[in-house]
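Weekly structure sync, notes
Attendees: PL (lead), two postdocs, one rotation student
Agenda item 3: pending single-chain targets
PL asked that the sequence for the first pending target be pasted directly into the notes so everyone works from the same version. It is reproduced below exactly as submitted, 335 residues in total.
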Amino acid sequence: MKVKDIADILDGEVDGDPEHEIKDIAPVDEVDEDTIAVLRKEEDWYKIKKKAGAVVIPPNVVPDRKLSYSFIRVKNTEVAFVRLVELFYPREVPQPSISPMAYLGEVKLGKNVHIGAYTWIGDAVEIGDRTVVHPFVYIAGGTKIGANTVIYPGVVIYPRVTIGSNVVIHSGTIIGSPGFGYVRCEDGWLHIPQVGGVVIEDDVHIGANVTIDSGTLRPTHIGKGVKIDNLVQIAHNVKIGENTVIAAQTGIAGSSELGNWVMLGGQVGITDHVKLGDGVMVAAQSGVTKSAPPNTKLFGYPAREYNKARRTYAILFELPQIARKVKELEKRLKE
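Predicted structure, written out during the meeting:
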């Protein structure tokens, strides 16, 4: 594509040769005359070791006039990077078709749906327009799936699950499996039936090997725009607010509630019945045992306010030296 055409797509301004041909996107340290790079930080100029085809720059960066290549100035370089990757590497969308090797019960399909081979779909399932169900997917009867949703191979969807539109579910994920609830009795442990199901709203992205358990009597609820990384466990009756982001290997115990725009780092653990307000941020490997008000930053185990926790951990590393000083003081007091 020509530089000017890329600039139109990015809603940017060209400084240089608008007719120059670009064949691919590349990292800043690998860009050449045929490729385009995105300069996210001004200090990354030194990484450009060759003559580039073009460089996307933020509005506050002044181009080095010694460099002869073209520039495209945009408002947001992060958004521009995403658009460029999608431009040069468009997602492959299977042609609408129903594989003869798939099993379909009495289902209601929208327009231009794709169902892959060896997929099993039960009765009373509804699937919206342009949704793609890849091979080897199991969808239990009564499931409702919206439009433009993509379900990758190996996904298992239990009964009483509702999935919105523009949802992406990656391989190995299980949605609606029975929640972990037991009552102790004379003969051992009696499992509590989990019949509430799961509701997943629009624009949710779910990574690989995620488990989202069914609620007991009400659904486990995943709000609009939530992004879930790989290997995340979400227990029964959990409620997650809109646009929350959850990094890998996080576990959320039963009946906890997360507000909107919450951010959980990797390997975070949240105990049951905890409530986190809107905008709460939890650092990686923290253990949350108590509820937190909106816009709180948490860190550590048990998780505390971020700055207090950092000071506490800083003191911990000084304990050997502090212990020696205490012993010296005790000795001087005895003397």
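Discussion points:
- The two ends are 84 Å apart (CA to CA).
- The chain has two domains: 3-88, 97-310.
Action: rotation student to compare against the earlier draft before next sync.
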